[in-house]
Amino acid sequence: MVWNAARCAGSRARVRRRARLAARLAVPVSAGLIAAGCPKSPVEPAATAPPFIERVDLAVSGQGAHTWRIPALEVLKDGTIIAAYDRRNDSSRDLPGDIDVVARFSSDQGRTWSAPRVIADHSGGIGVGDPSLLVDRRTGRIFVFYAYAPPGIGFGSAGAGNADSSRTILHTDYSYSDDGGLTWRSRRITSAIKRPEWLGIFASSGTGIQLRSGRLLQQYAFRMADGSIWAVSAYSDDHGETWHAGTPVGPLMDENKTVELSAGRVLLNSRTASTRARLVALSTDGGSSYGPPVPDGRLIDPTNNAALLRYDAAAPRDSPRSRWLLFSNTASTTARERLTVRVSCDDGATWAWARVIEPGAAAYSTMVRLSDGTFGILYERDDYRYITFARFNAAWLGIDCPTGSPPS
């Protein structure tokens, strides 16, 4: 069929405008708005799908524990969603304390969830917390990283050293499962990734990543004797058999996340107390080292944990979709409120679209792409009373990224 390029371009522009309006109003937009005979564009399915967002609370503080905090989220190879978080039994405080890590599972895109399953629980004054999830796409192994705290030991009181048997330091432990989360084993990698001169250390909670090369990356934050906080990537090139720590980046860092960009660079995005914006740094060697961190003034932040995600990790490197990113945080300079998802069409150089998930009090969040192409976000809200899962699609975000050839 013969088609007119200018006519089709105008038709698509009208669809995108109406899709953005529909997303704001939460009403569907018809695919019939595309002029007859015009070829489909890769962005049209996202633009023309009815926008939606669904929410369900997974944990309520005061029910089953004093406080539930610190969300982590991942998707297994079969599409099952796993959500993990702290069960803070006696108080809302961070480690040290009686804190365990539990998980829930969903096999229907987050509509219903299993009862909580214990991943790590210790007695004798030992606590574990701040979980981060990571799934090896090649082996299917699930990793849950967390801090292991001997009695009385927390981030601020932990001493120097890296002996796996030490009772005076925070340890870098993880649990792993090879059967979809039915059974778990635990492992300690303190001596492998913590330098003796580092003091308190913990996994940056949320979600780790796997690079195209197969490398697994889990972010950590640690404290030095002068009180400065640094970020470092722990990585494995053999599916988790051995782990190594890269070169630290800092010193004004805190909880931090990474994402692999279209050309293979790794972008690090960190919480900081030095400014009311996120700090970002780039790696050209798979997270082994990073350039100097600089503020990204477009990503305002009240000093909080956040999430960073590739829109489509399976997109070919030369595809414009490989440059699309999502970022979530509490977009405020004064308080943990206004949880927002932002969209970048250009590997984080700019952030063109934003949509508020939770306008009131909110805190930590983490995001994943689900097996049906929608997105899941697990977050804290209402002054840490709830941990809530929300599922939304690209139309709800109003994504309108260009789909032509990427810039050279």
Describe this structure in words.
- With 408 residues, this protein is mainly β.
- The protein has two domains: 1-51, no CATH class; 53-397, Neuraminidase.
- Mean pLDDT is 90; it is low at 1-13 and 18-47.
- A seven-stranded antiparallel beta sheet has the order 1-25-24-23-22-21-20. Strands 9-8-7-6-11 form a five-stranded mixed beta sheet.
- The relative contact order is 0.13.
- It contains four helices and 25 strands.
Task: List the uncertain runs.
Answer: 1-13, 18-47
Q: What's the total helix number?
A: 4
In this structure, how is the largest beta sheet organized?
A: 7 strands, antiparallel
- Highest CATH level, the class of the largest domain: Mainly Beta
User: Which range best describes the helical content: under 10%, 10-25%, 25-40%, 40-55%, 55-70% or over 70%?
Assistant: under 10%
What is the molecular shape? globular
- Secondary structure category: mainly beta
Strand order of the largest sheet: 1-25-24-23-22-21-20
Please give the number of β-strands. 25
What is the topological layout?
Blueprint lengths: L4 H21 L18 H5 L4 E8 L6 E9 L5 E8 L10 E8 L10 E4 L6 E9 L6 E8 L21 E7 L7 E4 L1 H4 L7 E3 L2 E2 L1 E2 L5 E8 L5 E8 L7 E2 L10 E5 L5 E5 L6 E7 L10 E7 L6 E4 L14 E6 L6 E8 L8 E17 L5 E7 L4 E7 L1 H4 L11
Parallel strand pairs: 6-11
Antiparallel strand pairs: 1-25, 2-3, 3-4, 4-5, 6-7, 7-8, 8-9, 10-13, 12-13, 13-14, 14-15, 16-17, 17-18, 18-19, 20-21, 21-22, 22-23, 23-24, 24-25
